[in-house]
Design goal:
Largest interface: A-B, 41 and 37 residues
Number of helices of chain A: 20
Largest sheet of chain B: 2 strands, antiparallel
Largest sheet of chain A: 5 strands, mixed
CATH class of chain B: Mainly Alpha
Strand content of chain B: under 5%
CATH superfamily of the largest domain in chain A: Periplasmic binding protein-like II
Order of helices and strands of chain B: HEEHHHHHHHHHHHH
Helix content of chain A: 40-55%
Number of domains of chain B: 1
CATH topology of the largest domain in chain A: D-Maltodextrin-Binding Protein, domain 2
Oligomer: heterodimer
CATH topology of chain B: MetI-like fold
Radius of gyration of chain A: 28 Å
Structural class of chain A: alpha/beta
Number of strands of chain B: 2
Strand order of the largest sheet of chain A: 2-1-3-15-6
CATH architecture of chain B: Orthogonal Bundle
Chain lengths: ~450, ~290
């Protein structure tokens, strides 16, 4: 009797298990096959997918641009997506290759010409109205309208760009017997005066560097150099001006001591935000970008500091700077090009620079046109951060130098940096480094022509 | 036949994955190396142009190959010596040997990027632990480990030795496999410890040494992650020296930064042939120094 009851219980248990198993299997099939319910929306709008690489403090800003755009109209809805900057280019290229790119890609990499030659990007000048084109060509700053072109078309609209100027602290200048109200008017004077700002420990190691020598790309413009002539379309590498700039950097390394300087650099804290060596007091005068102003406000709000343009060297140009840009691009395979263009115009202020000024201010970015600079939102920003005015002056300057707009610009940029590095370390003389650089560029051109590229 | 079919059916997930994700890309890259290919456009046949440029018009290719060879010459033999040495020490019959083996094995399972970052910090010439200890203990100013072209290679060699625990375990297994009667016979014949090492342990270990040598060479020619981490970490310190611009790094740059996948494929095949050539030489020479039991 007992055995029979047990057997019945076991049978029942088996049945329950079997039914549960089948039910779970069916649920799994239904869950896999049936698409998830779409959340109801008040207005069904066309999605515009925007990929960007901002995180941290910048993420809310880009999300705010998307929110403002979405509020401004009822046809499109921008969906921003952050992709990691480390492999952002790979993700983008694979999405293009897979036929499913975003509608807008905010591009940090200085490779617009490379991508344009590959047919990845949609020309944007063809989407502009005559009025928009006029504004872009004649109102926007040269750093904006000279950038993003490949041959005769515009493939990347500059929405943000970096320029570089000298950060310094008045109290340190006074302590060194220098007058912070009269920043040196020539590169040579700056070099000489800033030596008084160097500090050493008892063992003779540098603890503070008066004027921090950086990549020669940053100094070439102040010496009248650069890497490209937009008038002739020629790449400029082994030029007397660039040689002067490189000679200066190398001379500075030698004066301080290459090993000593490299050790000092290696000992500097991270270059990021609060750890920036200028904030930490390791650098007295340093050439850096405009974004540091916001970081100074966040991480060293009480620190008294000033910003001045890098003064020109003998024969150099005033208000000059190297520059890199952030571009808004539309992949050629984008599904919603019209929506993408609407968003790009909204953000960049192509039609209405004044409202777009508030985005630039929130990003702590430079204005792209005088109209934007004069907008109330931007003026309020400048009032809050007076140090930023120096960068605005630089932004409007015609002496801003970009990476050459050629399809092998990434290669060229890397080799320019390597040439500077080899000269700084003493592995090559500045003359040899620039001659090698010129030869490398010529070889790359020849290689590409051999492969059938026109450039 | 049916049994074979069932067998293939069971391994089909791996087989399909292998064909799609390994065999197809591997064979495709042969074709791509004869093309101009930028990932997003169709490949265009250019014949031997990529190979011609590699051998006659690209000094960076030769420089990166040379840098890799120098690194290989230093890192591989030292890796073998360190691996065998450690295995011999950890083959001793002392208390707590399991703990020691674990300690020496642990670095080999630490993620490569994490290990590289730790090395960057510890070997920082100004504020790193090693140079501080050198200064405090011996009054010596330590080298510029990361920025000096020669010392940067030394640093990467040390980093590769730090992860020698993986091969050490294989050497240890090889040592355990040596028949005890050989040592007993040697002892009876009056052989001392060094003679036993020289005439029994090392000869009997040569198949394992040979295996690790081949694997080490293959690995070192594809050395990428650590050098890439160094390069990225030193962007704001004046850049990494050119002496650690290794072949795999240049191949990666060509493929993904400069969008020259065809050229990078040609580089990949040249690397493959170099590795095959060196491995072939090693196999040809092994008859003279590798002793198999049978």
């Amino acid at each position: 009797m007992k055995t029979e009851t047990t057997s019945k219980i076991l049978d029942l248990g088996t049945k329950v298990l079997r039914i549960t198993g089948w039910a779970a299997l069916m649920a799994l099939i239904v869950w896999t096959v049936v698409p998830p319910p779409v959340p109801p929306t008040a207005h069904k709008r066309i999605p515009v997918h925007v990929w960007h690489m901002w995180s941290g403090e910048w993420l809310p800003v880009i999300e705010n641009v998307a929110d403002e755009f979405n509020k401004s109209q009822d046809k499109y809805e921008v969906i921003p997506l952050e992709i990691p900057p480390g492999d952002g280019d790979q993700k983008f290229l694979l999405s293009v290759s897979g036929g499913n790119p975003p509608d807008v890609m905010v591009q940090w990499t200085q490779a617009i010409d490379t991508y344009a030659q590959s047919g990845i990007l949609q020309p944007m000048d063809t989407m502009m109205t005559p009025a928009e084109k006029h504004h872009f060509l004649y109102d926007d700053y040269p750093a904006v309208h000279n950038n993003g072109w490949y041959k005769t078309h515009l493939y990347g609209l500059t929405v943000g760009f970096d320029v570089y100027a000298c950060y310094y602290r008045p109290n340190e200048w006074r302590s060194a017997g220098l007058d912070p109200d009269h920043f040196p008017s020539s590169f040579e004077a700056l070099t000489e005066e800033s030596k008084k700002l160097n500090q050493y420990d008892a063992a003779g190691n540098l603890t503070r560097l008066g004027f921090f020598p950086q990549a020669f790309t940053n100094y070439a413009p102040a010496f009248g150099g650069g890497f490209y002539d937009p008038q002739t379309g020629r790449i400029l590498l082994d030029t007397p001006q660039n040689l002067n700039a490189l000679n200066y950097v190398v001379g500075d390394y030698k004066n301080i001591g290459i090993d000593k300087l490299l050790r000092f650099k290696a000992g500097m804290q991270s270059d990021d935000a609060a750890s920036w060596p200028f904030i930490q007091g390791q650098l007295a005068v340093t050439v850096d970008g405009e974004w540091r102003v916001l970081q100074m406000a966040q991480y060293a709000p009480t620190m008294d500091y000033r910003v001045a343009p890098l003064p020109p060297a003998a024969g150099g140009k005033p208000l000059s700077s190297f520059s890199v840009a952030d571009f808004l691009t539309i992949p050629a395979g984008a599904k919603e090009k019209e929506g993408a263009w609407e968003f790009i115009k909204f953000w960049s202020g192509l039609d209405h620079p004044e409202p777009a000024a508030k985005f630039q201010a929130k990003f702590c970015w430079l204005p792209t046109s005088p109209q934007m600079a004069q907008a109330p939102d931007y003026q309020a920003f400048l009032k809050k951060y007076p140090q930023f005015r120096t960068f605005v002056k630089l932004a409007a300057s015609p002496n801003v130098v970009n990476i050459p707009p050629v399809p092998y610009q990434m290669f060229l940029n890397d080799r320019i940096l390597v040439a500077g590095d080899l000269a700084e370390r003493g592995a090559k003389s500045p003359e040899q480094a620039l001659k090698s650089l010129e030869a490398e560029a010529a070889r790359e051109q020849a290689r590409r022509k051999g492969l059938g590229y026109d450039q | 036949m049916k049994k074979q079919f069932v067998g293939y059916a069971f391994i089909s997930p791996w087989l399909i994955g292998f064909i799609i994700f390994t065999a197809f890309p591997f064979l495709s890259s042969v074709y791509l190396s004869f093309t101009r290919y930028n990932i997003v456009q169709n490949p265009v046949w250019v014949g031997l142009a990529n190979y011609r440029t590699l051998f006659s018009g690209d000094p960076i290719f030769w420089h990166s190959l040379n840098a890799t060879l120098i690194f290989a010459v230093a890192a591989v033999p030292l890796g073998v010596i360190a691996g065998v040495g450690l295995a011999l020490l950890l083959n001793s019959n002392v208390g707590g040997i399991g703990v020691y083996r674990t300690i020496f094995f642990l670095p080999s399972i630490v993620p490569v990027v994490a290990g590289s970052i730790v090395f960057l910090s510890v070997l920082n010439p100004n504020i790193g632990l090693v140079n501080r200890l050198l200064k405090a203990g011996f009054g010596v100013t330590g080298p510029n480990w990361l920025q000096d072209p020669t010392w940067a290679v030394v640093t990467l060699v040390m980093l590769s030795l730090w992860g020698v625990g993986g091969s050490m375990v294989i050497y240890l297994a090889g040592l355990k496999d040596i028949p005890a009667h050989l040592y007993e016979a040697a002892r009876i014949d009056g052989a001392n410890a060094f003679q036993r090492l020289r005439h029994i342990t090392l000869p009997m270990l040569t198949p394992v040494i040979f295996f690790n040598l081949v694997m080490g060479l293959i690995g070192v020619f594809q050395y990428f992650t650590q050098a890439y981490v160094f390069q990225q970490a030193m962007v704001n310190q004046g850049g990494a020296p050119d002496s650690i611009h290794f072949y795999a790094l240049y191949l990666f740059e060509r493929a993904w930064r400069y969008m020259d996948m065809g050229y990078a494929s040609a580089m990949g095949w040249v690397l493959f042939l170099v590795i095959m050539g060196i491995t072939g030489i090693l196999f040809a020479g092994q008859k003279k120094w590798v002793h198999y039991e049978n």
